[in-house]
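Propose amino acids for all 419 sites.
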């Protein structure tokens, strides 16, 4: 039975799952009936608020924005609205957030800016826990004389040890890059603590939040990193990368856009014109958060407070659903669960090393109505570090707050059948 909105025993509001699923047209699509979606880490369903804005833009705003006529003016206003409302939710200033075609491409642009700012012989710390998006672009700077130091995971657990990071830091390190959580191991890293350690060493901090943000928009301002990156298509929106670069760093980094955009913080890291319709549609993500907050009784808070309120609702929902899944797979001797076996320590992205190719097992699950994925998920370095052949990959089961108890039960039953 799906849960209604109300108070849990510990006094925390529970998520109204019927209301939530009503916001996602995918759940009413005939072609998706009877199927349980467990590859959300690769991209979530899109909420109706985003779809409505996207359709409206293409229907009545599909002109060059920021012009003097109504359609153009309104298009530009909607683009600005998306940037300003999302930045407010994330606890940062409006000119500290910009859009790009993907997180990988945004990171590449930032890497080029750092290449111009720092000197040969200086160093950047990267991890082998990251998706390649927050690793490869930085590692390429080694060709320009930048030293790359690797913060390595524990091969048994996939975790990053803080003491190992401290051993890598000295006055030569200018940047520390790490994930909020891994897209395979799923463990949530202590962003504020790592950022503080980086800052104390005189380095900036760059956080890949792609695998965390779908489970609740973070208060980036409170967390403290200089760069925070995530992908809107994984946070119920369109295929855009969202990039926060705090003012102190943005003003130091050289312009990567047209020369006449050099003085605009939110334009200087976007070499090409953004996708107008997709940027405008991103405001629908803020609509969704605001409507969830209002529905659950928090209408009068600030934008960042509303986002934090919804974040906690989502996390509580996901933790409750995740623990039974972890218990089910953790008790098996025919697979290896990657990452923590405690739901409160991780995102609901569960990777299983089966000791054999994972894609055929994902195909078997599909026949049983479970949509999941098998592969390396662009985390080749992590799999190799943990002794897993990337060609075999892992089976990844990922969900978000709109998943139901019935879908978790169906997944567990399907796993029992195919494994």
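Proposal:
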């Amino acid at each position: 039975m799906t849960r209604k909105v109300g108070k849990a025993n510990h006094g925390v509001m529970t998520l109204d799952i019927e209301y939530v699923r009503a916001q996602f047209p995918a759940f009413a699509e005939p072609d998706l009936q009877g199927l349980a979606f467990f590859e959300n880490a690769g991209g979530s369903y899109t909420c109706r608020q985003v779809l409505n804005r996207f359709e409206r833009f293409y229907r009545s705003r599909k002109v060059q924005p920021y012009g003097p006529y109504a359609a153009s003016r309104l298009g530009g206003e909607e683009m600005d609205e998306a940037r300003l409302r999302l930045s407010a939710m994330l606890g940062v200033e409006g000119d500290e957030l910009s859009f790009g075609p993907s997180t990988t491409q945004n990171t590449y642009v930032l890497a080029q800016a750092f290449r111009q700012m720092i000197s040969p012989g200086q160093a950047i710390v990267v991890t082998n826990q990251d998706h390649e998006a927050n690793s490869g672009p930085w590692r390429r700077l080694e060709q320009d004389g930048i030293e790359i130091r690797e913060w390595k995971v524990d091969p048994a657990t996939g975790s990053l040890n803080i003491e190992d990071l401290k051993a890598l830091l000295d006055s030569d390190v200018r940047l520390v890059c790490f994930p909020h959580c891994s897209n395979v191991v799923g463990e949530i890293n202590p962003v504020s603590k790592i950022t503080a350690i980086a800052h104390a060493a005189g380095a900036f901090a760059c956080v890949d939040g792609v695998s965390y943000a779908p489970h609740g928009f973070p208060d980036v301002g409170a967390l403290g990193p200089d760069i925070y990156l995530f992908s809107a298509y994984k946070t119920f929106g369109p295929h855009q990368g969202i990039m926060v670069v705090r003012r102190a760093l943005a003003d130091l980094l050289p312009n990567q856009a047209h020369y006449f955009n050099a003085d605009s913080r939110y334009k200087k890291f976007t070499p090409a014109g953004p996708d107008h319709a997709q940027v405008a549609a991103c405001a629908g993500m803020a609509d969704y958060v605001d409507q969830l907050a209002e529905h659950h009784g928090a209408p009068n808070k600030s934008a960042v407070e509303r986002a934090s309120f919804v974040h906690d609702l989502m996390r509580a929902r996901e933790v409750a659903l995740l623990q039974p899944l972890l218990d089910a797979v953790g008790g098996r001797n025919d697979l290896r669960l990657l990452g923590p076996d405690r739901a409160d320590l991780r995102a609901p992205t569960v990777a299983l090393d089966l000791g054999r190719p994972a894609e055929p097992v994902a195909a078997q699950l599909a026949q049983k109505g479970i949509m999941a994925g098998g592969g390396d998920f662009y985390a080749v370095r992590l799999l190799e570090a943990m002794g897993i052949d990337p060609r075999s990959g892992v089976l990844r089961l990922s969900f978000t707050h709109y998943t139901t108890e019935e879908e978790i039960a169906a997944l567990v039953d399907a796993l029992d059948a195919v494994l």
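The chain has a mean pLDDT of 96. The two ends are 27 Å apart (CA to CA).
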